[in-house]
Amino acid sequence: MANRNTTEIASLGEFGLIDRLTSRLKRRNKSTLMGAGDDAAVIDLGDEVMVMSTDMMTEGIDFDLGYFPLKHLGYKCVVRGVYDILAMNAKPEQLVVALGISAKISVEALDALYEGMECACEELGVDLVGGDTTASVNGLVITVTAIGRAKKSDVVYRSGAKEHDLICITSNLGAAYMGLHLLEREKRVLKDVDNPEPQFAGYEYLLERYLKPRARKNVLEALREEGIMPTSMIDLSDGLASDLRQICRSSRCGARIYLERIPIAKQTTDLAEEMHIDPVIAALNGGEDHELLFTVPLEMQEKVMRLGLVDVIGHITREEAGVVLVTPDGEGIALKAQAFDR
Amino acid sequence: MANRNTTEIASLGEFGLIDRLTSRLKRRNKSTLMGAGDDAAVIDLGDEVMVMSTDMMTEGIDFDLGYFPLKHLGYKCVVRGVYDILAMNAKPEQLVVALGISAKISVEALDALYEGMECACEELGVDLVGGDTTASVNGLVITVTAIGRAKKSDVVYRSGAKEHDLICITSNLGAAYMGLHLLEREKRVLKDVDNPEPQFAGYEYLLERYLKPRARKNVLEALREEGIMPTSMIDLSDGLASDLRQICRSSRCGARIYLERIPIAKQTTDLAEEMHIDPVIAALNGGEDHELLFTVPLEMQEKVMRLGLVDVIGHITREEAGVVLVTPDGEGIALKAQAFDR
């Protein structure tokens, strides 16, 4: 359909497409407190709210069944779906799954997929309450839509970050991205080998981070117990650079993060060097981290550090200062979301 | 992945796959009143419930962009998504949309899709509150997940049909199925023609039924105003035979429907004869009708007929009697869901 008179989606840039599509949306129900524009929609239930979010994964883009075991895939799609609920500081309770099933998928393959989904549901205390299955001409498609509940006053939006707030993340970054690169490399290398034996020794952690990301529900519980209320929060899925820019855009603020404070696992650095990839690029722009990025008031610094679950990587500034990465020699580099702008 | 040791999905039959996948699901939250097994999941909100349902459409299976205008497609996917909420007798309020976008889709094409979605949302009083976009290697994929609310006592399940209840439908059947056949025929005929001019004259109604199905919200409102509470209800999407069997299965009952009472539009019969298709097969097994099938107590007969919005096509029997189609000469034929069993 695209021809000379039409616009390619890529030309709209990082936020352009979403803005264009959502700008026309109207709110007709007073129960709609928050529509598009955050991790999840927020629906009024009185004292409480319901939050709701949807996430699609397509074969060939979001996963390769050549090396992604179906049980892990089921696990991961539930974790991804639920993360948007967690990122609103809500308790995920139910989800529905829509599947587009290609002819090559057997009943046993679906069993494995559902086994993985139930495994994640069990860990997260969520109920899989329904779904839809349709055929798919080309490849497996999975859409997980999750809902959760929170007290109205507990909901954390992307838009609440204030100057001087601390920027926190829940784990080292770039590991899932390198895990994906490792799987892709072994697939290339072993393409024409009869009994392929992929070489993953020493890099198991990276594979786990890509194939079986963990939902950091425990961090949210710890924050709650300590009385630390984040001012803003987002699911780290597109990469630190892009997701931090989302927070800054929604909160109309800037940010300074410090390169030497961004945690990168040794396996990530080792494999990145082996593959001639800059580990900092993996950490900033790799994506697929599936961790939480959030801000807390400066006075919470000691409490947050004491948790031992979080890294503080920088602080929020005024909007005019932009979103800046500070190198060890003190130089400030404007952060771009390379995944979109390249 | 399917090989000699695996099971093909088709071999599980009409209800086999869903049963197999959902049998392992656990309920962990007391707010989960109803999981898989009806048109929508039901979630406890106190006096009220929230109902939630998801619906996926994939290119090449559920639509052909060769003849399905994107604006109509946007409209239809919202109507389909909302129908499951209506079929629970709930008020649809919000929905989220996940899109898998192939490279050939331009920004203008997405604009048209969203325009159609907003058009349906406006008619149905629903808010599109968020979504997800991902790339898709092969073809457009759309998942609509809708939620709605109802008083707990107003929810209508599939499982409430009782012996002697009347079986009602909200429109003639088979028209959308014949509309699809017409579009497919013109596509075949005009495949190699430079400036194709498809011949649709006289059959516009069939095209509209396929391309722009209407959600029968007005029927539900009329039933409510007249104090008629359905005992069971389902969205007619797989065809009358399959969907009636779903009601009978959930309600542990049988049914007798009368062939001469099943409304079939003249255009449907005309085109079916022209294309050597049995119009009764189109009406019973065609699917895509997107109407409501419901049962009401026998004593509501006069009230229901007076509405002028509904056809009564038969009645509920005991389970042992099976699901039977009665021909004009009084013969009873066991109804099969051909879409699955062939």
Q: How would you characterize the overall build of this protein?
A:
- The structure is a homodimer of 342-residue chains.
- In chain A, a hairpin with a 3-residue loop joins strand 2 (41-44) and strand 3 (48-58).
- Helices cover 34% and strands 24% of the residues of chain A.
- Chain A has 11 helices and 13 strands.
- Chain A is of the alpha+beta class and 342 residues long.
- In chain A, the strands form 2 sheets. The first copy, chain A, has a 7-stranded mixed β-sheet with strand order 8-10-7-11-9-12-13, sandwiched between helices.
- Chain A has 2 domains: 9-154, 2-Layer Sandwich (60s Ribosomal Protein L30, Chain: A); 158-341, PurM-like C-terminal domain (Phosphoribosyl-aminoimidazole Synthetase, Chain A, domain 2), CATH 3.90.650.
